[in-house]
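Researcher: Can you fold this with iron/sulfur cluster in place?
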Amino acid sequence: MTTPQLTAAGLAALRGNARRNALAGEAMHRLEPLYGPVVWAPRFNALEELIFTVLTQHTSDTNAEAAYNSLRKQFPTWMDVIEAGADEIAESIKHGGLANQKAPRIREMLRIILERTGRLELEFLATMPLEEARAWLISLPGVGKKTTGIVLNFALGMPAMPVDTHIYRVARRLGLIGLKTNVDDAHDIMEIQIPPGDIFRYHILLITHGRQTCKAQRPLCGECPLADLCAAKPVFAKAFDTSKYRRPVRGGQTL
Ligand code: SF4
């Protein structure tokens, strides 16, 4: 059992960003023994990560992996994808869902990257300041803050925070962001809650917590090491006290 560095009373004494930063640090301190250790290691180069991330949209990682492997097998180079018909690409990624939308988007991304840089790689982004690299990627069709964060952080080790649905849910419940904060703003707020070198760990620990403990429908608050610090825990405790589950609501918003 990890010794808490921040107590509920200590947290209550803090306000604003100091409160959220302290909570973020404490969350990592308590979650890493449970889900870690977390060590950054790139799984793909930056362009591969970008294409893989497009394939993960609206499907499971397993389906996205099947689609990615099929794409790479059928089109060994990215130039092969640019030169292929959208229907051929869609057929090769059909296991990932929304193939007819993803196929032309992937081909267009690759075409634009080649047109702008003369190359089919994105490692040059690591030489740019973070905001420039982010703006470059976001200018590609269909690329938002989450995809940008994944590419820059996972592949290049840059301090960009990707916020997915699990992290957004955990962050709202815990109080790392406000209940009315939208997911786009959550990226900016959470990115500066911890030191830049900890962003990958922060992302992985919160996403794992969301998948394994702070689940969407019925969070396991009784097993949660953050329960004493959590803004939503009393709401869930009350809701789960009834024999029939009802979705907890606070302030008119589903938590
Ligand atoms: S106490 Fe419950 S709602 Fe709060 S973070 Fe833990 S699992 Fe999620």
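Model: Folded with iron/sulfur cluster in place. The mean pLDDT is 92.
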